C-alpha cells in the first residue's frame, strides 16, 4: 500500500509540480498546527493561586480571576455542584491581561480549582527601573521596599545599586544587568538613599527616563541624625561623641553643617535640587513615622502613585512587639510574616536634652520650608 502511495506521489510531482508544492504546504501546516497545539497542551495545570510568570491571583470566591501577562489560552477547571466543570478562554492573538482584567468564570468555582495557562509572549527580561526610592538615608527605605516587594507586580533589586552616584561611569547596560527579570506589566524598582543628597543624580535619572517615578521617605531629621550616628557606632565600635561632631567648639548654637549626619537632614535644600529637574508631582513623599505606625496607609498611597492595584492592605501587616515595628505577611493566608533584620530598628543612644533641643531648634526653619515646598505638614517638633 505504501509502495502504491509513493508511486502516486511521484506521478503527481512529475505531472503537476504546483499542486505537489501546495499539497506539501497544506501537509506542513496541518502538522505544524497540530504539533503547536500539542506544545500548548504541554503546559501544566497549576493551582489557581499560581503567581509565577503571570503574577495571577484570585479573589476569595474564585468567581473572577485577575492576571497580568500576555496569555493566548486560559482554562479554568473546577467543580459545579460536585461535577468537574471547565471554562476556557481563547485569545486568538494573545491578550495582555492586566491586574484589573476580570474574567467571568461563571459557575466554575471551588477551593480546589486549577488554572491551565498558556502564555504567548511572556517577554521576561531585565528592564531599567521605572521607579526609584531615592532616600532619605535611615528614613525607612528598606522597610518600604520590602513591603512593596510583596506586590506581585513589583520586582526589586536586593542590594542598593548606587548607580547614579558611584557607578555612573559603568553605563546603563551595567545598571540594567543588576535588575531582576520582569514581565511587561511589572514594575522594576530599586532603592539607593544616597541619591537624595547627590547633586548630579536628578539630571542623570532624567537622562535615563524623564518619566521615572521617584519615592522619598522622610523622617524627623533629629531622629534621623541619631539613627545615622547609631549606625556609625555599630560599624566602627567606639566613635567620637555625637556632640563633638555635631557642634563647632562644643557650642550647641553652632551646628556643624559640614557633618554629613547633620547635612542629610536639610531636606528642603536637597529637594530644591530635585525640583530643578523633576516636577513635585513626580516625587511621592512617604511619611517615615507613619510608615511605622500605619504602614498600610503609606503603602496604599505608594501603590496608587505607582499605578499598582491596591493588593497590599492593612491585613498584610502585623506589629511585632519585641521589635517594636510592623512586619509583613507575604500572603494573607500565612501565619508568620517577614520582619526586617536586627540592623533596622536599633536602640538609639540617649542624648542630653540640651543637645536634642539644639538640634530641634536648628532644623525647625528648614522643616517649615520643607512643609511649604511639599504642601505636607510632617509635624516634627
Ligand atoms: N517595619 C520596620 N522595621 C524596621 N525598621 C523600620 C520599619 N519601618 C521603618 N523603619 C525604620 O527604618 C530605619 C532604617 O531606615 P533605612 O532602611 O532607610 O536605612 S538605610 O538608609 O537603608 O540604612 C530604622 O531606623 P533605626 O530605628 O534607627 O534603626 C527604623 O526606624
UniProtKB/TrEMBL annotation:
Keywords: Disulfide bond, Glycoprotein, Transferase
Span of domain Sulfotransferase: 129-364
SUPFAM superfamilies: P-loop containing nucleoside triphosphate hydrolases
One matching Pfam family: Sulfotransfer_1
Binding residue positions for 3'-phosphoadenylyl sulfate: 138-142, 219, 227, 344-348
Catalytic residues identified in the record: 138
Disulfide bonds: 327-339
MF GO annotations: [heparan sulfate]-glucosamine 3-sulfotransferase activity
Signal peptide positions on this chain: none
Record-given protein name: Sulfotransferase domain-containing protein
Amino acid at each position: 500500500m505504501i509502495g502504491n502511495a509513493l508511486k502516486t506521489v511521484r506521478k503527481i510531482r512529475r505531472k503537476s509540480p504546483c499542486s505537489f508544492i501546495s499539497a506539501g504546504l497544506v501537509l506542513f501546516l496541518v502538522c505544524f498546527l497540530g504539533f503547536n497545539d500539542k506544545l500548548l497542551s504541554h503546559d501544566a495545570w497549576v493551582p489557581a493561586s499560581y503567581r509565577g510568570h503571570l503574577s495571577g491571583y484570585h479573589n476569595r470566591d474564585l468567581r473572577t480571576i485577575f492576571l497580568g501577562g500576555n496569555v493566548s489560552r486560559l482554562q479554568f477547571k473546577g467543580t459545579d455542584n460536585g461535577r468537574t466543570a471547565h471554562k476556557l478562554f481563547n485569545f486568538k492573538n494573545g491578550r495582555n491581561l492586566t491586574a484589573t482584567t476580570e474574567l467571568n468564570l461563571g459557575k466554575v468555582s471551588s477551593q480546589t480549582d486549577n488554572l491551565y495557562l498558556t502564555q504567548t509572549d511572556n517577554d521576561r527580561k531585565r528592564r531599567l527601573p521605572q521607579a526609584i526610592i531615592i532616600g532619605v538615608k535611615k528614613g525607612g527605605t528598606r522597610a518600604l521596599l520590602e513591603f512593596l516587594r510583596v506586590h506581585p507586580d513589583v520586582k526589586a533589586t536586593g542590594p542598593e545599586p548606587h548607580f547614579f552616584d558611584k557607578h555612573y561611569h559603568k553605563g546603563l547596560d551595567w545598571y540594567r544587568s543588576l535588575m531582576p527579570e520582569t514581565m511587561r506589566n511589572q514594575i522594576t524598582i530599586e532603592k539607593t538613599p544616597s541619591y537624595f543628597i547627590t547633586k548630579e543624580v536628578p539630571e542623570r535619572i532624567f537622562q535615563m527616563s524623564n518619566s521615572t517615578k521617584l519615592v522619598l521617605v522622610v523622617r524627623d531629621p533629629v531622629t534621623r541624625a541619631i539613627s545615622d550616628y547609631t549606625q556609625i557606632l555599630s560599624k566602627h565600635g567606639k566613635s567620637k561623641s555625637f556632640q563633638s561632631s555635631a557642634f563647632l567648639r562644643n557650642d550647641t548654637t553652632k551646628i556643624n553643617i559640614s557633618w554629613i549626619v547633620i547635612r542629610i537632614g536639610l531636606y528642603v535644600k536637597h529637594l530644591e535640587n530635585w525640583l530643578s529637574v523633576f516636577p513635585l508631582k513626580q516625587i511621592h513623599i512617604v511619611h517615615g513615622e507613619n510608615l511605622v505606625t500605619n504602614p498600610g496607609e503609606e503603602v496604599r498611597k505608594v501603590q496608587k502613585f505607582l499605578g499598582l492595584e491596591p493588593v497590599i492592605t492593612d491585613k498584610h501587616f502585623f506589629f511585632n512587639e519585641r521589635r517594636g515595628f510592623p512586619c509583613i505577611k507575604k500572603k494573607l493566608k500565612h501565619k508568620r510574616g517577614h520582619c526586617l533584620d536586627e540592623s533596622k530598628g536599633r536602640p538609639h543612644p540617649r542624648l542630653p536634652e540640651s543637645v536634642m533641643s539644639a538640634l530641634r531648634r536648628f532644623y525647625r526653619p528648614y522643616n517649615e520650608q520643607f512643609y511649604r515646598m511639599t504642601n505636607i505638614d510632617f509635624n516634627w517638633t
